[in-house]
Amino acid sequence: MVTIAEFSVPTTSFALAETLPQFPDVVVETDRIAAHVPESTMPCLWVTGGDAEGLSESIADDRTVKEIEATAEFNGEWLYQVTWNDGIDQLVREMIDHEGVILEASGRGDCWRLRIRFMTRDQFEDFRAFFDERGPSFRLEQLFAAEHPRQTRGDVTPEQREALLTAADLGYFEVPREGSIRDVADALGVSDQAVSERIRRGTENLVRDMLVAESL
């Protein structure tokens, strides 16, 4: 059965290892992902937040990057075309060799999150065993068996559920809004960034699971 796994990976062990920790407000999301050509995997990145000029210079000097070119700008988002260094290419090649297909990848601060599809549970177990032994540290955040071929997400995690319910109780979703991200963060005892990511990812999971599944 198709297995979908969501992993977190330390930025220092993955792409933009030197840049993202310097720009904690920057969010990087992959635009295109090639499943079977390592050299072309994650060739395009959408980048939001931070000083565009300083960020471009930092990415260009990042040890994980060979070449970079800013190709477009839209409403404060920059699209970069990136050629990665051999270390990132090798890591992606090892992921592909273990039958993993990267569905989504996004990075912020000290962490990347990867959603990876495996055609069988055994492939997932082989992937996890390989990287547990050799690194980098792929921390499993969520795992589920897809109920239909196009499903890429599971239910919300317990942390996402807690954040969404707390936000609703505090009026975060009201119009006009009564509660803020800071209010939710204070209630849960976590950072504003953590709450923002939980609400955003939890909402996306719910929308995709409910609306995409209904449209199939």
Number of domains: 2
Helical content band: 25-40%
Instruction: Describe the strand arrangement of the main beta sheet, using strand numbers.
Output: 4-5-3-2-6-7-1-8
Secondary structure tally, helices: 6
Mean pLDDT across residues:
82
Shape: globular
Biggest β-sheet: count, sense, barrel? Answer: 8 strands, antiparallel
**How big a fraction of the residues is strand?**
25-35%
Q: Nearest-angstrom radius of gyration?
A: 18 Å
Order of helices and strands: EEEHEEHEEHEHHH
Could you tell me how far the N terminus lies from the C terminus, measured between alpha carbons in angstroms? 19 Å
Structural class: alpha+beta
Q: Strand tally, please?
A: 8
Low-confidence stretches: 211-216
What does this structure look like?
The chain is α+β, with helices and mostly antiparallel strands and 216 residues long. The protein has two domains: 3-145, no CATH class; 158-215, no CATH class. The protein has six helices and eight strands, in the order E-E-E-H-E-E-H-E-E-H-E-H-H-H. The protein has an eight-stranded antiparallel beta sheet with strand order 4-5-3-2-6-7-1-8. A hairpin with a 2-residue loop joins strand 4 and strand 5. Helix 4 crosses helix 5 (181-188) and helix 5 (181-188) crosses helix 6.
How do the strands and helices of this protein lay out in sequence?
Elements: E1 3-10, E2 27-32, E3 44-48, H1 52-61, E4 65-74, E5 77-84, H2 86-97, E6 101-108, E7 111-118, H3 121-134, E8 139-145, H4 158-169, H5 181-188, H6 192-215
Antiparallel strand pairs: 1-7, 1-8, 2-3, 2-6, 3-5, 4-5, 6-7
Helix pairs in contact: 4-5, 4-6, 5-6
